[in-house]
């Protein structure tokens, strides 16, 4: 039995907490929002983001970071990417030196262009493991077979997390390529916004397949330039996560793109979804990385222009389809 803190009471934090609770661990969940905590305690459910999933009484909730992380063996970071640095700073004084930190959030810190494990590692010296892959909370919470990857610079830590999370419905692989794993998980959210635009515009499967295929080419081009291994982008945290996010009815990023394709503004779309849409801030980081590494990433550039430079989705499609003719390439 491990003592585990889960920081974040949204859909992913809760789904993973339920799994770890089923395996006999002692779970304390930190809520950022006291109203969210009260609602969860009243209904034993988070009706905003994981309706219909009951939360057992033995799972504890607190709004104190100190109470959540003190004397815990494992701390799971399940807050939005923009809050990773602040949340890590707030737990620094209380987290045990030997506690394993598991990041399950997906994004890039815009100010530093760090991956999220790099952000955590810049604040605390605990070993950090990233858990990523095609895994919607709504399905994991209903025990639907799911596969993910645990990645770390320390393989022994990745293997501990593999053992901690493995169940009959949740299969965990390890992969030592942490930069490749993190970039795949973060960047696919931007491509998923584009896939949603395809749905919103009423285009078909041809367009979606094109976006996904050329999207993974863009992700791996940048990922390899940043030190990732090419094979990682063909794996669960690359093409696997891209597929689930671009095709799923659960995907917040795809749905946000769909609303934008239907004519809603970015603000209206994110308000309607009322859950974190990581592709939006990540588009800014991805665009800056594209410039910094001088990599061609036309889909990511197009989404950036739609979100932040007032381009219409029609202009974006036209620009993509009328680029200079070229040979198909994957590097
Ligand atoms: N939902 C899913 O199926 C999956 C989500 N993820 C990732 O997990 C992370 C969390 O996503 P979800 O649980 O879906 O989000 P959510 O929108 O369901 O919940 C976010 C949680 O963070 C809290 N929060 C909001 N602002 C905060 C702040 N400034 N500081 C600290 N906490 C704050 C909210 O109160 C809420 O408990 C994201 O990076 C997402 O990409 C990864 C895999 C699957
Ligand atoms: O990362 C995810 C699934 O692996 C969640 O993606 P969405 O935010 O698009 O729902």
Automatic annotation (TrEMBL):
Catalytic activity: sn-glycerol 3-phosphate + NAD(+) = dihydroxyacetone phosphate + NADH + H(+); sn-glycerol 3-phosphate + NADP(+) = dihydroxyacetone phosphate + NADPH + H(+)
Residue ranges occupied by any Glycerol-3-phosphate dehydrogenase NAD-dependent N-terminal domain in the UniProt entry: 3-156
Transmembrane segments: none
UniProt GO molecular function: glycerol-3-phosphate dehydrogenase [NAD(P)+] activity; NAD binding
Keyword set includes Amino-acid biosynthesis: no
GO cellular component: cytosol
Pathway membership: Membrane lipid metabolism; glycerophospholipid metabolism
Residues holding sn-glycerol 3-phosphate: 106, 133, 135, 188, 241, 251-253
Residue ranges of domain Glycerol-3-phosphate dehydrogenase NAD-dependent C-terminal in the record: 177-317
Main location: cytoplasm
Residues that bind NAD(+): 8-13, 137, 252
GO biological process: carbohydrate metabolic process; glycerol-3-phosphate biosynthetic process; glycerol-3-phosphate catabolic process; glycerophospholipid metabolic process; phospholipid biosynthetic process
PROSITE patterns with a match to the protein in the record: NAD_G3PDH (PS00957)
Residues engaged in binding substrate: 106, 252-253
EC number annotated for this UniProt entry: 1.1.1.94
Subcellular location field: Cytoplasm
Active-site residues per Swiss-Prot or TrEMBL entry: 188 (proton acceptor)
UniProt-annotated binding residues for NADPH: 11-12, 106, 137, 252, 276, 278
Keyword list, A-Z: Cytoplasm, Lipid biosynthesis, Lipid metabolism, NAD, NADP, Nucleotide-binding, Oxidoreductase, Phospholipid biosynthesis, Phospholipid metabolism
Pfam families given in the database record: NAD_Gly3P_dh_C, NAD_Gly3P_dh_N
Function: Catalyzes the reduction of the glycolytic intermediate dihydroxyacetone phosphate (DHAP) to sn-glycerol 3-phosphate (G3P), the key precursor for phospholipid synthesis.
PANTHER family: GLYCEROL-3-PHOSPHATE DEHYDROGENASE (PTHR11728), GLYCEROL-3-PHOSPHATE DEHYDROGENASE [NAD(+)] 2, CHLOROPLASTIC (PTHR11728:SF1)
Family: Belongs to the NAD-dependent glycerol-3-phosphate dehydrogenase family.
Protein name: Glycerol-3-phosphate dehydrogenase [NAD(P)+]
Organism: Zhenhengia yiwuensis
Gene: gpsA
């Amino acid at each position: 039995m491990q003592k585990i803190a889960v920081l974040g009471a949204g859909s992913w934090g809760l789904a993973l907490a339920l799994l770890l609770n089923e395996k006999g661990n002692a779970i304390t969940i930190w809520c950022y929002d006291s109203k969210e905590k009260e609602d969860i305690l009243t209904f034993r459910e988070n009706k905003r983001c994981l309706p219909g999933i009951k939360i057992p009484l033995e799972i504890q909730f607190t709004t104190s970071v100190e109470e959540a992380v003190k004397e815990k063996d494992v701390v799971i970071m399940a807050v939005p990417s923009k809050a990773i640095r602040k949340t890590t700073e707030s737990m620094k004084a209380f987290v045990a030196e030997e506690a394993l930190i598991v990041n399950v959030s997906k994004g890039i810190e815009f100010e530093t262009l760090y991956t999220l494990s790099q952000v955590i590692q810049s604040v605390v010296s605990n070993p950090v493991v990233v858990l990523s892959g095609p895994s919607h909370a709504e399905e994991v919470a209903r025990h639907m077979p799911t596969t993910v990857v645990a990645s770390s610079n320390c393989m022994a830590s990745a293997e501990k997390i593999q053992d901690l999370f493995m169940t009959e419905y949740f299969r965990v692989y390890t992969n030592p390529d942490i930069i490749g794993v993190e970039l795949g998980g973060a960047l696919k959210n931007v491509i998923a916004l584009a896939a949603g635009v395809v749905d919103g515009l009423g285009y078909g499967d041809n367009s979606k397949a094109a976006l996904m295929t050329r999207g993974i080419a863009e992700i791996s081009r940048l990922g390899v330039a940043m030190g990732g291994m090419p094979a990682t982008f063909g794996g669960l945290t690359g093409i696997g996560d891209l597929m689930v996010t671009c095709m799923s009815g659960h995907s917040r990023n795809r749905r946000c793109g769909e609303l934008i394709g239907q004519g809603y503004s970015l603000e209206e779309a994110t308000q309607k979804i009322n859950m974190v849409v990581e592709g939006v801030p990540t588009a800014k980081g991805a665009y800056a990385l594209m410039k910094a590494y001088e990599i061609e990433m036309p889909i990511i550039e197009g989404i950036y222009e739609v979100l932040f430079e007032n381009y219409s989705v029609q202009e974006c499609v036209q620009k993509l389809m009328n680029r200079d003719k070229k040979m198909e390439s994957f590097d």
